[in-house]
Design brief:
single chain, about 150 residues, alpha+beta, Trna Endonuclease, Chain: A, domain 1, four-stranded mixed sheet, two-stranded antiparallel ribbon, 5 helices, about 40% helix
């Protein structure tokens, strides 16, 4: 399993443990109605990839695109306003950290052109867009966004 998938699973698991109140199945009907304008509540994985041959992966991705996936979408989103009202929601793109020749962890991989374009649009409509390379970074970003 690739490092980004492992990181994504860890982030989702930690989020669900730390913030169960923002997980859809924990919400009561009144709260669901209050946030009904969102497609989903809580931290949501948008695309987790597929394994297997290139042909199977290509068919899988085509199916996702047919269902509305957009090239450049980030890995995770939290469709909730920031506690301080500064952002409409949070996108997180996960990148594998780079290790330099001295064994020191540095900033992760670069965004593709389509990811850069998605980030530009997201920021222009008031979303926070972060590139995340570790579980600690992700949990700090969520804490800052949620205000606790």
């Amino acid at each position: 399993m690739n490092e980004e998938k492992v990181l994504q699973k860890a982030i989702i698991a930690c989020f669900r443990r730390k913030y169960p109140q923002y997980t859809w199945h924990f919400l009561n009907e009144k709260k669901k109605a209050q946030i009904g304008q969102y497609l989903m509540a809580g931290l949501t994985g948008i695309y987790t990839g597929s394994s297997g041959s290139a042909v199977k992966k290509g068919a899988y991705i085509k199916g996702l695109k047919d269902q509305g996936m957009v090239v450049g979408q980030p890995d995770l989103m939290l469709p909730m306003r920031a506690a301080n009202q500064s952002y409409n929601g949070l996108f997180m793109e996960l990148k594998r950290p780079k290790i330099n020749k001295n064994g020191v962890k540095q900033a992760g991989g670069k965004l593709s052109l389509s990811q850069e374009k998605f980030r530009e649009i997201a920021v222009n409509i008031g979303w926070n867009y972060l590139v995340i390379t570790s579980l600690d970074e992700a949990m700090n970003a969520l804490k800052n966004h949620l205000g606790h």
